[in-house]
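WARN no homologs supplied; continuing
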Amino acid sequence: MELLSNALAHRSVPDRYGFPPDKGPVLLAHDHSPDVAFPVAAEIIRAGKEFGFFQVVNHGVEEGVVRGFREAAAGFFAMLAEDKLPYCSYDMSKRFRLATSTFYDSGETRYWHDYIKFRGYPASNQNARHWPSKLVNFTPSLVEYSAAVHELAQTILCLIAEGLGLDGTFFTGNLSRGDTHMSINYYPPCPDPTLTMGLLAHCDRHLLTVLSQADVAGLQARHGERWLLVHPIPGAFVVNFGHQMEIVTNRVLASMEHRAVTNSAAARMSVATHVHPTDGCRIRPASEMVDEAMNPARYREFAFREFMEAYDAADASREEVLQSFMINHD
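OK structure emitted
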């Protein structure tokens, strides 16, 4: 597996990473982004309806906890190629795997990033035995980080429930009790950011994502016909809603497409924590979100496991995967 992180520097963009002009990045130097930094119920719902994204500060996750795990994750990508090789795999059933680009919607064109995907919370022995043992600080820093972000995510979910007029414990059962999956994307400096993309446009399949992007910009969120750059706020987490949130709230809260662009000046690393329903969780619009006369249920009931399979079959296409679960009211 040819990893981008194995090279000390890249002097040009290989042809296999080049996108045609109509599918390439739109690099925005100055634009407006959904910088909502107030972790209160009303502001969360307002941001969710408008953008599907918001940023939180004063969140209670200590700076040292975030820095400690980000340093451990950066240390993983900096390991020698032969030390990373045992973790390389495109087998999605593996509990810790390293890969490059993405097989969604890529065809022959590759995306400019390496990534690791793994299960981070709870830190069970079954999960932890797959984590890299050569980095002595990886496991303890991950345990601390994942527990802190899990607590933050549960607080956010309680605030979302409150803002929607639901019981405060609405999301605390099977809707958020699956193993927390984590994705760490590493984007090396790119010799020509106009030629390639870091990550394809997609919506997350999960309930909620809590992202640490540190101080290097690259995340863009779709807002209507525009792509908005989500400017980094010192110490903030970026939060966005996944498909399950949109379905459970009967489209009151939006799951917006997002993507990543590259830059030539600095490496960028994002750490994403995805809150999962349990595989067998039954997903449907909450009864409180449904009015048969004015706002009927937009989606049928299904098991989360079924959605995961449909998402993969649709190559992460927002329209195609949601179409499988929509109720036609025509």
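The chain is about 25% helix and 20% strand.
OK
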